[in-house]
């Protein structure tokens, strides 16, 4: 039995439909504070949709989602609260192209957390330092490489001082040589004890960093296990097939 | 291609590569020189510059080019229309005030909501006080007598200032997720766009007085400006809607994920990018609107083109319409060219940021 206060995210009986299409089927998932969960699965399996439900970028139709003790429902205050607690990093970075790197990082803390510009900039520089691009602070996103942009995006999310980080395929849009610089940053966050859910195809990362790997297919959680069990001893046929496809060459 | 191509070689390569190229180049050069010579000899070499009556141009042996004397003598009518002669300095200052306001609001320093609003409110207030008078010892000049360039500039900037926020609101309503708001808005945009501007102006000037109570009507000039602004907003709203569509959906998601609310997202994330994407058609819309101000002459206002027509509308000057139209044309040209060049500057500046 885990204590309720140790739970960061608790999803119970969640279903999501796009019209008649049943996108997520009875998802039950519990993530403890400090836990690092990797979600994998074939494309179209609903893994991105699932983590996008956690901060209401997508709306679920039934079941409950509780994030850091706040239930995600139609109450806008709850949605705002959860979005403050959960930072998100996107596949395509989604930096604001009209703002400098520094402004990207300070905008939300100033508007949402009402921090002073001075405080927000100090925090931003601290996190830009952490992702190793403090010297690019005055540049615009379009002047950076993909890997640098994604690291800025991570810093931007961290500036809101979230309790949870959601990564939605953070390396899928990157050129191969830039993947490791982004993964290194995520690993260092993991070492700091950040709670995170990461949708990714980077199986090496999953094996080394995750506490738990979740495999989804056709909108269902098919299997979940510790990384070593998951990779060395998969139980479900669909998991075995997926792993053979992704690791087979 | 090497950058070190000499001028002579470049000309040969681009214009005289084949015999046919050479013939075309020479033929068009000759035509160009002929036309240019015609214009210059009329406008400059054979033109008459000084003098204070039409007689200088009609005298025997006078040069047969342009008679710029008409501008010399009648420029105050062209620039100020029917505005009382002794008070025309007020119209001139008022016009300068609006121009300075417009130029100031083109400077990035003024690009915050508060500064822009403050600049324009004080600009319009100063314009109104100067033009209308009736206080501070300035004689009253009613709107009916306003005219010339300051009227043109006033109508244009009022239409832009009222129409622009209106167009943003309309574009947002048009994009609403609620069909009850989006559909009627789309219908109203379509209706407004399918009416000629002139009919909207006539409605504002002539029909509205029958419908609205006296105290709500305001002067004819303001009714026309509001009608014009609605017309402008219908077009501009569609331009802005196009701008919204050009912003990737990831932008809205990122700002939502960071916890920005609707208005913060709109103001800090969407609108700056929307205006960037919509800049070229927006400048286009401004240029069209500036030139369309001439239509108010049909409702009885003497904007600069109409007061120009009045300048050659006497027996003495009726031969000099070409000169007056060239002069008024130059005024329009200067305004519209500045608008276009400013638009080009903005695009360059913004593309540096975006890259």
Strands, helices and their partners?
The complex is a heterodimer of chains A (249) and B (355).
Chain A lengths: L6 E12 L2 E12 L3 E5 L6 H8 L7 E6 L2 E2 L4 H10 E4 L11 H11 L5 H14 L15 H13 L5 E5 L7 H16 L3 E5 L3 H7 L2 E6 L2 E6 L1 H6 L4 H11 L2
Parallel strand pairs in A: 3-8, 3-9, 6-7, 7-8
Antiparallel strand pairs in A: 1-2, 1-4, 4-5, 9-10
Chain B lengths: L6 H9 L3 H27 L9 H4 L10 H12 L7 H17 L8 H20 L15 H27 L4 H16 L2 H15 L2 H4 L2 H27 L2 H9 L4 H31 L9 E2 H8 L9 H34 L1
The arrangement of helices and strands of chain A along the chain is EEEHEEHEHHHEHEHEEHH
Count of runs of 4 or more consecutive helical residues of chain B: 15
Record the strand order, biggest sheet of chain A: 6-7-8-3-9-10
- Mean of all residue-level pLDDT scores of chain A: 91
Count of separate DSSP helical elements of chain A: 9
Low-confidence stretches of chain A: none
DSSP helix fraction of chain A: 25-40%
Q: Report mean pLDDT of chain B, rounded to a whole number.
A: 85
Secondary-structure element order of chain B, N to C: HHHHHHHHHHHHHEHH
Task: Indicate the CATH architecture of the largest domain in chain B.
Answer: Orthogonal Bundle
The geometry of chain A reads as globular
Low-confidence stretches of chain B: none
Q: Which structural traits does this protein have?
A:
heterodimer; A: 249 residues; alpha/beta; 6-stranded mixed β-sheet; 9 helices; 10 strands; B: MetI-like fold; 2 domains; 15 helices; globular
